[in-house]
Amino acid sequence: MTQGTDTLAESAFVLSLLLDVDVPVIVTGAMRHPSLPSSDGPGNLLAAVQAASTPELASCGVLLCMNDELHAAYAAEKNDTASTAAFRSRNMGLVARLVEGRVMMLARPGRMPHMSLEMDRPPRVPLISASFDDDGLLLDHLPADRAGVVIAAFGGGHLSEKMADRAAMLAAKCPVVLASQTGGGRILQSTYGYRGAEIDLIGRGLIPAGAFSPEKSQILLSLLMSKKATTPYIKEIFQDYPHF
Question: Which of 24, 70, 123, 171 maximizes the CB count within 10 A of its CB?
Fold first, then answer.
């Protein structure tokens, strides 16, 4: 599958959740315009075809192929605006590299549980990013039809005291997932206990996102809410997956 790279990692993640197939599924794109002499599009497309023709990748789920590198869909992230090496794997290494047209396996990723979209359009799940001295006032004015909320917190899962209070009140009304905006690592669960830290927030009903990025957390929570998942099941999915 080919598309623009702005949301390539997100599209790969959606496919990894909705597709239940035992064949290689590869997504790719290009970082440089085809009018440039160093355009990477043709090379990425060739590498994706070579990867899709590799039976060994059939059990790896959806993979993102860029710059002769293969990333697991749940870990892939774009972290540069223009570099041909713009994609990385959050919290883990590459699944494989392509060398002289051959796939060289480096790791075998776990697979996310298969999900289905239970409605025509996924339910609304706003993603709110905490900022310096944020009082969380925006949390009081979210759309009434929200099915859940994802908050991109500081560090291991920390908010200001005022934002923490508003997040806790919101968690009494709908699922609120706590993710980290740091770009790596897992949400902490038992290290800091001050007001607004992870122990306090989890104790007041927020759901830790585990190792998922805020963007992946938003997609995952939306699909879970499309099937009206219970809070215990949502906690289980975020806690147990992905396997790194």
Answer: 70
